[in-house]
């Protein structure tokens, strides 16, 4: 286990070493994990053609570090606690020993299905302990997991299964969440009518809902796993650069990208960042409220805490059900030490009123984390005052699916607290701000594009099946740098403040959604001719989705069309991408070359029409007035 820095001085020394001698620095960090064979080369890199390799020659299995390594001295300690959605339901917990044997048995069963190194397995499940177990079991046999968030539709799921070429899907009968039972296996069935290549579907029966089983393809997962002991569940020997998982995320073009992370580098950075940002000690209870279907859940619900020997808490439900004090009940029930959640959850709890949190002493809490979107000052203060009782440092953590782990954050309890600032780069991370020409901005307090000039172990290696897309997206705009897609500013103390995306990617309730993706879905409606989607500031969600839609012909019943468009988006992406507002319009503001001027659309959607800027380059400037008049 890694010891967290004990002072800002120690942090600064580590930072200096990581810049002066990155190989020595990372070699030291990596050597704190157990490797089957040590690496022969720490780093090989080239940001131009984009090729980065860490710890080559080294072999390992991440599950040996998450589980086996702890057995001798922490085997009886709790690895995972599960809190069900139903507040009256019984929670479950697994010691390291128990989790280890579950994972071994599941790994053995997966092998008996013919799964092995390099096979892609899609996981589409609710937040139940079986989800954590199967993800670890997939890693144990050297297969590649592709977890798809349970809120995505059959279409999105089918696209992801097909893109990754999955041979197997693991799912559950239904999703139980916030007093509702939502379909899960049914969605998989529908997805699989649209794609080939899946030989086997495992179904965990967790809700007791009836499901149709397809003979020869579908298997009852509990039954199957119960046939195996640990034999056959040994950890596969993996090369450091072998893929560990694929996770799909939205970009500025229509099709989500399969971000690929590797066994060695991802492991090192997941454990390293978890330990230093939260200054977590073995045995502490860490609660990351994200779903495992997102990168936050991968790195800080599953891998990070287990690598450090902490106790990770997994919650099936939602913050405000059955009441807005659910989070605090869970914190008290399980004596949570570290809470890691998203600003959107904080804002919705804040909106419910202080009375819901006041009665709870929340004595066990030591550190509060925030992730996923910029946290506004009011939400930060409320989190610090009402939840942390002014006792707990709040650490705002900036990172991305592609970065694998937190790159910029306040180091809990060490660095000064500055609301709305994400904080300092972790040692080993070399961020820069670039101007539009790609020149580094040296002075402080100037806004620029956030980029990183040196590799770190858990950076994206490729986008599945399309390396050129990866190179173009992240290394094409500013040659020599990893480009994040975010704008940021740095103050005199070196603290970074993240402003938000500078591309056509929205952040709705901490979920990343591409405008092009939503537009493609809207355009699937037969009566839609064209659409343009923009984000508008929203008090609770951070950003809301506003869609301008041109219909074919004159819409007879606008309300019906709007409802149908919403249903179409739900069908093609999922509920998370539903537009908040749909304005039916006769035209869109386009330049003579046909480019939609989103800047103008954003202003109109926000209702800020006094300064629309120069509209003279538009093909038809009169369209702007029509849009303003039709605003909803
Ligand atoms: C985008 C990445 C991995 C975190 C979960 C979302 C935004 C993330 C912050 C933060 C301001 C943030 C950025 C980033 N973002 N964390 N602390 N402050 N913005 O991962 O879905 O890959 O989205 O989320 O815009 O680029 P993601």
Question: What this model shows, in words?
Answer:
This protein has 18 helices and 32 strands. A 9-stranded mixed beta sheet has the order 5-4-17-16-18-19-20-21-22. Strands 12-11-8-6-7-14-15-25 form an 8-stranded mixed beta sheet, with helices on both faces. Strands 23-24-26-27 form a 4-stranded antiparallel beta sheet. Helix 5 links the parallel strand 6 and strand 7 (144-147). The protein binds 5'-O-[(S)-butoxy(hydroxy)phosphoryl]adenosine. Residues 249, 295-296, 371-374, 396-401, 422, 484-486, 498, 500-501, 507, 512 line the site of 5'-O-[(S)-butoxy(hydroxy)phosphoryl]adenosine (WT7).
Spatial sequence of strands, sheet with the most strands: 5-4-17-16-18-19-20-21-22
Helical content band: 25-40%
Query: Ends: how far apart?
Result: 55 Å
Hetero groups in this structure are: 5'-O-[(S)-butoxy(hydroxy)phosphoryl]adenosine
The biggest beta sheet reads: 9 strands, mixed
**Total number of beta strands:** 32
**Sequence stretches where pLDDT stays below 50 over 5 or more residues:** none
Overall form = globular
Category from helices, strands and their pairing:
alpha/beta
Strand content: 15-25%
**Count of alpha/pi helices:** 18
- Mean residue pLDDT: 96
Radius of gyration: 24 Å
Features:
632 residues, binds 5'-O-[(S)-butoxy(hydroxy)phosphoryl]adenosine, 32 strands, 18 helices, eight-stranded mixed β-sheet, nine-stranded mixed β-sheet, alpha/beta, globular, 31% helix
Structure described in brief:
The protein is built from 18 helices and 32 strands.
């Amino acid at each position: 286990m890694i010891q967290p820095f004990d002072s800002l001085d120690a942090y600064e020394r580590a930072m200096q070493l990581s810049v002066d001698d990155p190989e020595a620095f990372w070699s030291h960090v990596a050597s704190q994990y157990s490797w089957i064979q040590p690496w022969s080369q720490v780093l090989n890199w080239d940001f131009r053609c984009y090729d980065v390799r860490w710890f080559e020659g080294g072999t390992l299995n991440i599950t040996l570090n998450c589980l086996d390594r702890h057995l001798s001295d922490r085997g009886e300690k709790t690895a995972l606690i599960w809190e069900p959605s139903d507040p009256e339901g019984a929670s479950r917990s697994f010691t390291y020993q128990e989790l280890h044997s579950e994972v071994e048995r599941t790994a053995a069963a997966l092998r008996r299905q013919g799964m092995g190194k390099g096979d892609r397995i899609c996981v589409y499940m609710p937040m139940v302990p079986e989800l954590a177990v199967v993800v670890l079991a997939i890693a144990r046999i050297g297969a590649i997991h592709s977890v798809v968030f349970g809120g995505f539709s059959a279409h999105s799921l089918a696209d992801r299964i097909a893109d990754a070429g999955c041979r197997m899907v693991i799912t559950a009968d239904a999703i139980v969440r916030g007093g509702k039972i939502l379909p899960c296996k049914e969605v998989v069935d529908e997805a699989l009518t649209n794609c080939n290549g899946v030989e086997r579907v495992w179904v965990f029966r967790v809700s007791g809902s009836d499901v149709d089983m397809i003979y020869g393809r579908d298997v009852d997962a509990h039954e199957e796993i119960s046939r195996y002991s640990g034999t056959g569940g040994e950890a596969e020997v993996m090369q450091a650069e072998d893929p560990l998982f694929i996770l799909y995320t939205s970009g500025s073009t229509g099709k989500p990208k399969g971000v690929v992370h590797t066994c060695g580098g991802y492991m090192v950075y997941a454990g390293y960042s978890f330990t230093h940002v939260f200054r977590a000690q073995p045995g502490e209870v860490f609660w990351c409220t994200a779903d495992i279907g997102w990168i936050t859940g991968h790195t800080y619900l599953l891998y990070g805490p287990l690598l450090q020997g902490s106790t990770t808490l997994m919650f099936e439900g939602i913050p405000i059900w059955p009441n807005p004090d659910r989070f605090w009940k869970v914190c008290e029930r399980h004596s949570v030490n570290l809470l890691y959640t998203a600003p959107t959850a904080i804002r919705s709890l804040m909106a419910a009123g202080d009375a819901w949190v006041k009665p709870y002493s929340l004595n066990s809490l030591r550190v509060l984390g925030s992730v996923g979107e910029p946290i506004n000052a009011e939400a930060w203060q409320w989190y610090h005052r009402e939840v942390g009782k002014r006792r707990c440092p709040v650490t705002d953590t900036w990172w991305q699916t592609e970065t694998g782990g937190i790159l910029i954050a306040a180091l809990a309890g060490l660095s000064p607290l500055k609301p709305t600032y994400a904080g300092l780069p972790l040692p080993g991370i070399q961020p820069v701000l670039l101007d539009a020409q790609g020149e580094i901005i040296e002075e402080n307090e100037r806004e620029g594009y956030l980029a990183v000039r040196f590799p770190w172990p858990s950076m994206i290696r490729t986008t599945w099946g399309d390396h050129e897309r990866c190179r173009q997206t992240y290394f094409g705009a500013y040659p020599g740098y990893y480009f994040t897609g975010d704008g940021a500013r740095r103050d005199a103390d070196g603290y970074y403040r993240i402003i938000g995306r500078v591309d056509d990617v929205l952040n709705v309730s901490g979920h990343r959604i591409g405008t092009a993706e939503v537009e493609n879905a809207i355009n699937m409606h037969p009566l839609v001719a064209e659409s343009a989607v923009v984000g508008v500031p929203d008090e609770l969600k951070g950003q809301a989705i506003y869609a301008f839609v041109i219909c074919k012909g004159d819409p007879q019943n606008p309300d019906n069309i709007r409802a149908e468009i919403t249903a179409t988006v739900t069908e093609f992406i999922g509920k998370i991408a539903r537009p908040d507002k749909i304005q039916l319009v006769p035209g869109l503001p386009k330049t003579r070359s046909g480019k939609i001027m989103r800047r103008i659309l954003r202003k109109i959607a926000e209702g800020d029409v006094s300064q629309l800027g120069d509209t003279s380059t538009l093909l038809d400037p009169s369209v702007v007035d029509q849009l303003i008049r039709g605003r909803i």
